Amino acid sequence: MGSINRSSWKWLYVGLGVKRWLVSLVAGMTLLGLGSAYLLVELYREIILPDIFYYLTLQFIPRVWRGILFVTLAVALVALSLYKLSQSLLAPFTRDDTNLIDALYRQRARKRGPKIVTMGGGTGLSMLLRGLKEHTDQLTAIVTVADDGGSSGKLRRELGMLPPGDFRQSIAALADSEPLMSQLLQYRFGNGAGLDGHAFGNLFIAALAGVTGSFERALTEASRVLAVRGQIFPATLENVTLCADVRDADAPRVAGESAITQRGMRSRIERVYLEPGQVSAFPGVVRAILDADLIVAGPGSLYTSVIPNLLVRDIQSALAASPALKVYICNVATQPGETDFFSVEDHYAALAQHVGAGIFTHVIANNNFALNFPASAKSQMVRTRARAPLLRSEPENVLQSGAGARSADGARAFELMLADVADDAQPWRHAPAKLARVILDWYNGKK
Fold first, then answer.
1. Half-sphere exposure of 235 (CA within 13 A, CB side)
2. Confidence at residue 434, expressed as pLDDT on a 0 to 100 scale
3. Positive or negative CA dihedral for 383, 388, 394, 397?
4. In this predicted structure, what is the pLDDT of residue 401?
5. Helix crossing, 100-111 with 2-9: angle to 10°?
6. Does the CA dihedral 419-297-180-429 come out positive or negative?
């Protein structure tokens, strides 16, 4: 009962667009009541009624109390009728466990939420989007186009289109549709000539690109059909290859995203870059960055999902010009082949090496180390931790790999916030709800 009363008061919250129509409805009912009263009074005076009407019209009660009684009953009946009617009409559009006014309030709150731009790809980006979409509808996901492995790589080579895999995951994360539809997009065929390994969502986007004539139009139509909250943009529409320089005297250069991670198992990645190097950003990306309130990079594969977006020069320029708050979400665990033995400082140093130390000035990292990794994962990944500040008396090579993360006096070049953002079931990943709440609380505090 207490929760029902608390929910009822939300009808009076500012910005819902409900109070004005309630006032209009009350005014209309009042005029209707006054008109009916005039007619009834006139009939009552002109017509002789049986004695029983003395009791039916409650004449044994003073007129003032009769009026109060009738008004109270009328308001209660109108309110109950409107609530039940709206509940019946809108039931198909709300989840079974969602109160109508709570759903309406959340929708209005999301429309007033901050303009957030996210950058990345793969599972990390989709986790972030799944959490943020509950707080704002003004979301823009900038997705890397360098993927060349698996189903996306096959479609990219055979159809000459941008790799759809990371876009599929972002669409599934932002879709305001039945869970079954999200599962359908993520479904991966296991058997069948030509279909083995393909995800249904990848084929869906490829088919839409063929029907609409362009990849960007396919993203727009897929977002419309699946009621996506926000917008999803490719970093660039040009066909790019992600390359890397590694510590390998025999073969210091690696071409292709999937090959970079494999080579990283044997040789440390020095830097990554795009070929061709001079590519234009998708126009909507630059507008979104310049108009954003908050820009979030990560989480996700550092060298193959997050940094590739930042290698587009137009995006770098827009980031430098944008007045938005900018934060990097450090991975909960290291990724074999990319960030083996990396600390938080090492992650930031790699980011700063490619985009500049002054762009992302804040970092959010996990501090919940109590959750246990499964035995199969312990040998491949470790938790990402922040190292203690480098003291002047310590040798410079102690944190050589993270040198770009510190200023000349040894202080961090970024503001670090530690919070519990790890998933209880999969502790090597972020929990969408936890991460989104931490980001929004940090943003509101900074704002």
1. 30
2. 97
3. positive
4. 41
5. 40
6. negative
Judge whether 278 and 308 are in contact, CB under 8 Å: no
* Single pTM value for the model: 0.78
Would you say how long the chain is, in residues? 447
pLDDT score of 410: 55
d(CA 258, CA 279): 21
Of 235, 217, 322, 321, residue with least CA distance to 281: 235
The pLDDT tens digits for 423-435 are: 999 999 999 999 9
Q: Distance (Å, rounded) from C-alpha 243 to C-alpha 256?
A: 6
Nearest Cα residue to 423 out of 407, 437, 434, 439: 434
Residue found under tokens 């630059």: 286
DSSP assignment of 268-303: -EEEEEEESS--PPPHHHHHHHHH-SEEEE-SS-II
Taking each helix axis as running N to C, give the angle between helix 122-132 and helix 165-174, from 0 to 180 degrees, rounded to the nearest 10: 20
Residue with tokens 């109108």: 78
CATH numbers and ranges of domains, the chain: 2-92+99-109 (no CATH), 113-145+235-446 (3.40.50.10680)
Q: How confident is the model at residue 29, as a pLDDT? A: 79
- The alpha-helical segments, DSSP class H, found in 140-256 are 150-159, 165-174, 179-186, 200-212, 215-225
Low-confidence ranges of the chain (pLDDT < 70): 1-18, 87, 89-105, 178, 191-193, 249, 375-380, 388-411
Please report the pLDDT score of residue 392 as a whole number: 28
Q: List the one residue out of 178, 202, 198 whose CA is nearest residue 188.
A: 198
- Distance between the two ends of the chain, CA-based, in angstroms? 36
